[in-house]
Write a structure and sequence with these properties.
This protein is an alpha+beta fold and about 650 residues long.
Length: about 650
């Protein structure tokens, strides 16, 4: 029998529904609250983070201007090089990233980790790395690690005019040479723009090449001729080696225009390897001061002739080689008695020069030195150009005037000396030296000497070489050479003069109508100290190549007997008649056949491969060569050419 009055089971379904509804309502409210927090409270901050991730402000710069020689040969250029940078706030595992980067870039992982543990938003890790390293970094895909292209300075011709060109620092700023002097001219402009990136940080947009080029720096074209530069570098290196000298300098100038065709220092300097150079980058031609010695005598004589102190035939007693002035002894290399002014220059008499200087007086001599540019910079566009050392005339004592008359007791730069000889070669008109190639710019000058005076001085300089003077080793058959030797003692740090010398030689040719000026100097030679012996032969070699390349040097109708004997003594290996070669393959993989070609054609081929040959003999046609035709191009860049008078 069933129980009556029992309660039915309680229904929880309504409560469950209400509970579920409350939960859903709370969840929805939480989502709305979270959405409010994200979009309203944190919205601006997250928007900035998104912009930083997908949009970035970058600075875009053009390339640094390029530098060319007068013929358009590229001497300095900028190329894109990859660099590695990191955004530390995007790096997760600092140590893992540091180890991977250290292995690829050859860096200490601990040092890399130290760089990344910073609050900076941007850190350079390695700049201007190799393409292989950049490819390895790119393949790793490390978070927060990026590659950026930077412009790197390259000098395609290596050591050619290295000291003149100078170099730039890591940030592309010129700090030596023309790179420094023309930094504002060469430096590119820049601008900031916004670039979009994908999730991996890769750039999605960029400035087009034409637009980027509009930010490039301006180019520079020099008066330097690469073939003349290489030939002079080779000659100076031989001269310094032969003299066992410390350093050397050389200039080649086009006389009618004042354009500098070669600017050479030794030891050579390659601006591509700045870290390996130890002071070789110094631009000595512009900044070094030295006592010129006997090369100053023709300049002093020109001033004396202009002031009518003497005539070329005026005689001075030269004291048989020894003269005491106010307790100071002045000596000559030989015992001379009475010498004319012509002979004083030809034989380089110190005593005769001193007496001419004393007869002229300090005020007059000083006035001409200043008019020629001594005592102040020459005004070339070079940083740090020296003014030399020229004291006011009122401070000159009699002994000092006598010394300065033959080139001791004053400090000059090579540029100042070249400028003074350029004035004499140009008929007494002083024109500026030029480094920038501006063919349409008129040549303007200031007259310092009368044309008659400079003609007389040029005749004296010609006697130095062509007669029995001190510069006979600079002779070139068939060419009227004018020149002057220089041998100057160097001042001692403790006072007076020591045992070191500066040997030099300056040549102007052809003397009847000057076209070239070559000035070469060797500092502290140990195998002697006379410029006519140590330097003049290599000045001659430069002259031969200059005149041959321009077609101004021709072979005589009949070769000297010595040359004929040398030709018959040649090896049978080279005994075959020389046939004229109309075409030479410049791009041959092996040494081309240069036999029968003109010297100019041979030089164009060899210089194009970075080779400046040694040339022996006289004439304009190549008779034989080493390496032989068909042999490999010489790895040491050494080549010898022997000239023949007859082309067949």
């Amino acid at each position: 029998m069933a129980k009556t009055g029992s309660k039915p089971p309680r229904d929880w379904s309504r409560g469950k529904i209400i509970f579920a509804g409350v939960l859903f309502a709370l969840a929805l409210m939480g989502l709305w609250a979270r959405a409010y927090h994200v979009q309203v409270i944190k919205g601006p901050e997250y928007a900035k983070m998104a912009n930083r991730q997908y949009w970035a402000s970058e600075t875009v710069s053009g390339k640094r201007g390029e530098i060319f020689d007068r013929n358009g040969l590229l001497l300095a250029k900028s190329i894109a090089s990859p660099s590695v940078y990191v955004r530390p706030n995007e790096v997760g595992d600092v140590w893992a990233v540091s180890q991977r980067l250290g292995k690829i870039l050859g860096l200490n992982p601990g040092d890399v980790a130290g760089q990344l543990k910073t609050k900076k938003r941007f850190v350079w890790v390695a700049r201007k790395i190799s393409d292989a390293q950049a490819s390895a970094v790119r393949e790793e895909g490390l978070p927060g690690v990026y590659l950026e292209a930077e412009n790197s300075r390259q000098y395609p011709q290596g050591h050619m005019a290295g000291q003149l060109l100078g170099f730039v620092n890591m940030d592309g700023k010129g700090i030596e040479g023309l790179e420094k002097a023309f930094n504002d001219h060469l430096t590119p402009s820049s601008t900031k723009y916004t670039v979009q990136r994908d999730a991996a940080g890769n750039r999605l947009s960029s400035i087009e090449g034409e637009d980027r080029a509009s930010f490039d720096g301006q180019d520079l074209r020099l008066t330097i001729d690469s073939q003349v530069q290489l030939a002079t570098e080779d000659a100076l290196a031989r001269s310094v080696a032969r003299a066992k000298g410390k350093t050397g300098m050389a200039l080649v100038v086009n006389v009618p225009t004042g354009e500098i065709l070669a600017w050479v220092h030794y030891p050579l300097f390659n601006p591509n390897s700045v870290q390996k150079a130890s002071g070789e980058w110094k631009n000595r031609i512009a900044v070094d001061i030295f006592e010129p010695g006997s090369t100053m005598k023709p300049i002093m004589v020109a001033a004396a002739l202009q002031e009518k102190v003497c005539q070329p035939t005026t005689r001075f007693y030269c004291e048989n080689g020894k003269w005491s002035l106010k307790g100071r002894r002045i000596k000559d290399t030989h015992k001379y008695e009475n010498l004319t002014v012509n002979e004083i220059v030809r034989y380089s008499s110190n005593i005769g020069s001193a007496k001419i200087g004393l007869a002229m007086g300090a005020e007059k001599y000083s006035r001409y030195l200043q008019a020629l540019g001594f005592g102040r910079p020459m005004g070339l566009p070079l940083a740090g150009e020296s003014a030399g050392l020229l004291r006011p005339a009122r401070q000159w004592r009699e002994v000092e005037l006598a010394n300065m008359a033959f080139g001791q007791g004053l400090g000059v730069t090579m540029l100042q000396m070249a400028g003074a000889y350029l004035c004499i070669a140009n008929g007494g008109v002083r024109i500026p030296l030029r480094l920038l190639y501006e063919p349409d710019r008129p040549v303007e000058g200031v007259r310092v000497f009368d044309r008659e005076v400079t003609s007389q001085v040029m005749a004296m300089l010609e006697e130095v070489v062509q007669m029995d003077g001190t510069g006979t080793q600079a002779r070139i058959d068939g060419v009227r050479m004018a020149g002057k030797t220089g041998t100057a003692q160097k001042a001692s740090p403790t006072g007076g003069y020591g045992g070191e010398y500066v040997a030099s030689f300056v040549a102007v040719f052809p003397a009847e109508k000057p076209r070239y000026l070559v000035y070469m100097l060797v500092d502290e030679p140990q195998a002697g100290h006379y410029g006519g012996v140590l330097v003049a032969p290599e000045v001659r070699n430069v002259g031969v190549q200059l005149l041959t390349a321009t077609g101004m040097l021709t072979a005589p109708a009949e070769p000297p007997a010595v040359q004929v004997a040398q030709a018959h003594a040649q090896s049978q290996r080279f005994a075959a008649p020389v046939e004229r070669q109309p075409i030479i393959a410049a791009d041959a993989e092996a040494m081309p056949d240069l036999q029968g070609a003109t010297v100019r054609e041979a030089l164009e081929i060899l210089v194009g491969h970075g080779i400046v040959p040694r040339i022996s003999g006289q004439g304009v046609i190549v008779g034989k060569q080493k390496p032989l035709p068909g042999e490999k191009w010489p790895a040491d860049k050494q080549c010898q050419l022997w000239l023949a008078y007859q082309p067949g």
